[in-house]
Amino acid sequence: MTTTTDTQAPTVFNLTTDGVEALKAMTSIREFESRLPAYSKDGLIRGSTHPSVGMEAIAVGVSRSLRPTDSIASNHRGHAHCLAKGADPGRTLAEIMGRRDGYCGGKGGSMHIGVKELGILGTNGIVGAGIGLATGAALAAQMQNTGDVAVAYFGDGATNQGVLAESFNLAAIWNLPVVFICENNHYAQSATLEQMVAQPVLSRRGEAYGVRSVDVDGMDIEAVANVAAEAVAKARSGQGPTFLVADTYRYLGHMADDTEIYRTREQVEEWKGRDPIAALASKLIAAGYLTQDDVTRIANEAVISVDAAEAFAKASPYPARTEAFTQVSEEN
Amino acid sequence: MNKPAQQLTVWRALNSALHDEFTEDPSVMIMGEDITTWGTGGGIYGVTRKLADTFGKDRVRDTPISEEALISAGVGAAMAGTRTVVEIMYSDFSLLGADGLINQAAKSRYMFGGQFSTPLVLRSNGGSGIGKAAQHSQSLETLYAHIPGLELVVPSTPNDAYGLLRSAIKSNNPTVFLEHKGLYYEKGPVTKELVPLGQARIAREGAHVTVVATQLMLKRALEGAEQLAAEGIDVEVIDPRTLYPLDMASIYNSVKKTRHLVVAHEAVRDYGWGGEIIGNAAQECWNELDAAPRRLGAARTPIPYSEELEAAVVPSTADIVGEIREVLGAKSSALTNTSSL
pTM, whole model, 2 decimals? Predict the structure, then answer.
């Protein structure tokens, strides 16, 4: 491992150079995630899968500052985190569909997508678990002096897990290169944040442990990218952890078959009015970087690329039965 | 050529293993509560003594009392390439970090399709006998041995403590390494050679009955064997040393020779690992067994505080001797009579 010398200073999000790429990335993730409920309905996905439609700006905005050797530890709603970190949509979808060509050979599924070569320490089925893993990956980076950082993605629900408090404290006393990112989509499955916490300004929790804490509009890619760039640069240069609280919303249910009795259609529509993809497209058109036709073309390209991912995943065979008994330990 | 063995206590042997492993592999680190600042500077039982003086506080880290974050950060660090040892002061406290150990570490290789190694050692101690009561005395080895993906080491002697700890740290699988808090001051020869995981040790050779035991029960089984030897009953004692991987082959060989099996462990008897060994042996050695195998374990109670009560729930040397006589049945008195001729 070599010590990095690059990107010690945050790179400000530039609409000209970064805007179109971000729009493409978000559009493609939106297309990917939007298809999941239908796959579940068609029996192509077993068990639970949790789409993050509406929340794309966070994964895309953060990943812009990450390099392949940086680690991320994700959660149950984690496909976007993986895709934005560079995971191939075909292999990701193949994993979600339990196929042999999935990143984990079909052993993991939606909630256990890990990609070692991309520093993806896994999506995770245990709420809050990635927080501890990222803290540990940051410890490893610090001890090995790689200049790498670790990112933990988690939801507002995970802020009530004890491991967050413990990890904040560890990261603060050891000045670890970790960025804690709370995607506050206001619902822990069906429970509202207001119902489950008495003090809803989550960033205060980080401050209480001595972790620099920043609130950001999670529907604004520029805002997310800029605070993330600063947090990552600080982590990389030995200035310790940051807690980012990104205000956001998921348009779809928690998982397939969610009756959504805990929220109103009006609320969903209201949040859709703040859509991060539409907002960025409008900005790019207004600035003269793109035309409406360009935006339509980007959407069509996303459809084509996810079609290809879908074809790849569906064509991939299911793993052989004998695979069930391998990889439990190094010896088998 | 074997190097001349040093006489060391278990805690010194463990300390020495850490020193040697830290010297050999710069990616090894250890973290835990009070591991450089307690007593003479080495954790609650001294195992990490002077490690920080030699290797620095970067690789030897005192931590806050946060078992959940400690264990899960240990898992994350291991997945990211640091060979990580986490000391948990008492194994009872490891339960606060069960998610990291059971849901994350144990499954990390499998659920990600073999991409990740998680070279984590969770070092802790179990066992009763020194009045630490219900929440500092459990023998949780059965619990962890049940989880696919975990290795489980239960060293008894100073030599095994040294050799097994080094093997556990070198292992690319997550390993629970449970020392026995009542055996830290036991002294014995240490050759400073690695002891592979998954290889039982014949602690005492004998012809008439096989006793499988670890740690405090091993000590008592050997005491019992000496008592019975005086009567002409020749007891073979096997220390499996690791409960996973488990060396059943050595146990089968012994049972086929002696035709009698007793298992003694300090973990609660019900659903304990003795049942696993007896179940396997019954299937493999049914025709060679002259009597139904017997097992001893702690009573199905928490460990009580008061000395008399504590002694009442954990198998004693006399209890082990009693079970050996029981399994030998009529043969027991026959052997005794023969020897007194």
Answer: 0.95
Q: Where are the domains of chain A?
A: 15-310
DSSP label at residue A115: B
Q: Are A57 and A79 spatial neighbours (Cβ–Cβ below 8 Å)? A: no
Catalytic residue chosen out of the listed positions B67, B151, B276, B323: B67
- Residue whose C-alpha is closest to residue B80's, from B38, B32, B116: B116
B114/A139 Cβ within 8 A:
no
Q: Residue range A140-145: average pLDDT?
A: 96
Per-residue tokens: B27:
């990616």
CA separation for the pair A239, A236 (Å, rounded): 7
Token pair belonging to A219: 């529907």
Residue A243's H or E segment, with its range, is strand A242-247
Write the DSSP string, A244-295: EEEE---SS-SSTT---TTS-HHHHHHHHTT-HHHHHHHHHHHTTS--HHHH
Q: Are B149 and B105 in contact (CB under 8 A)?
A: yes
Beta bridge partners of B153: B177, B242
What is the per-residue pLDDT across A213-264, written as a single tens digit (0 to 9) for each?
999 999 999 999 999 999 999 999 999 999 999 999 999 999 888 899 999 9
CA-to-CA distance for A39 and A35, rounded, in angstroms?
A: 7
Looking at CA atoms only, how far is residue A16 from chain B in angstroms? 35
Q: Which domains does chain B have, with CATH numbers?
A: 6-190 (3.40.50.970), 201-340 (3.40.50.920)
Question: Buried b / exposed e across A177-214, counting CB within 10 Å, b at 16+?
Answer: bbbbbbbbbbbbeeeebeeeeeeeebbebbeebebbbb
**Distance in angstroms (rounded) separating the CA atoms of residues B319 and B324:** 9
Tell me if residue B136 is catalytic: yes
Q: Which of B28, B57, B79, B84 to mutate to probe the A interface, most A CBs <10 Å? A: B79
Q: Is B121 exposed, middle or buried (0-12, 13-18, 19+ CB in 10 A)?
A: buried
Give B285-304 pLDDT, tens digit per residue.
Answer: 999 999 999 999 999 999 99
Nearest neighbour of B69 by CB, restricted to A140, A143, A166 = A166
Shortest CB distance from B112 goes to which of A114, A131, A150? Answer: A114
CB contact under 8 A, B103 and A125: yes
Question: Which CATH number applies to A15-310?
Answer: 3.40.50.970
* Contacting residues of B for A104, CB less than 8 Å apart: 111-113, 115
ipTM attached to this prediction: 0.93
Catalytic residue among B21, B33, B136, B266: B136
d(CA A180, CA A168): 8
- Which tens digits make up the pLDDT trace of B145-169? 999 999 999 999 999 999 999 999 9
Establish whether B260 is a catalytic residue. Answer: no
Other C-beta atoms closer than 10 Å to the C-beta of A39 total 18
pLDDT at B215: 98
Alpha-carbon separation of residue A199 from A33, A154, A203, A243, A244 (angstroms): 32, 18, 10, 17, 17
* pLDDT at B333 (0 to 100): 81
